Amino acid sequence: MAPMRRELFLAGLAALGLAGCVSKPPPIARGLSHNIHDAQSEFAELVPTRFPVGSAVSDLLAELHHEHFKIGPADARHPSFQFTAAVNHPGLGCRTAWYISWAAEAGRITAIEGYYLVECL
Fold first, then answer.
1. What are 51-64's pLDDT values in tens digits?
2. pLDDT at 14 over 60
3. Residue 42 confidence (pLDDT) above 60
4. What are phi and psi of 94, to 5 degrees?
5. DSSP code of 72?
6. Contacts of 57 (CB under 8 A, 6+ apart)
7. How far from chain centre, in Å, is Cα 112?
8. Which residue, 7, 36, 95, 101, is most buried by CB atoms nearer than 10 A?
9. Which long-range contacts (CB under 8 A, 24 or more apart) does 57-64 make?
10. Which of 109, 118, 119 is nearest to 47 (CA)?
11. If 0-12 CB within 10 Å is exposed, 13-18 middle and 19+ buried, where does residue 102 land?
12. Is 0.90 surpassed by the pTM of this model?
């Protein structure tokens, strides 16, 4: 392979690898900081602001379904909640995930938290 072609190939491969580490967030998480630590704090604050305690669970579920979150019972990572919704974006070398966990009673949110994770090799 000619040196120029090889450099272009390697540059394209590197760009593809970097693109795998950047995932388009679900609509609820758009506009967060590009700094991962800041974005994690922002998402943790955003979720209970968008769906405050006392809100209808039906509104939360409608929004999460619309944004393609997978909804299920809480797991070991979120033991104080009844339900968890997640959007995962695997990439080349990195995975990003947005979690929303909540508890409810009589159709109303009683507790809610948001988590944003980025895991890279």
1. 999 999 999 999 99
2. no
3. yes
4. -140, 155
5. E
6. 102, 104, 107, 108, 109
7. 15
8. 101
9. 57/102, 57/104, 57/107, 57/108, 57/109, 58/107, 60/100, 60/102, 60/109, 60/112, 63/28, 64/100
10. 109
11. buried
12. no
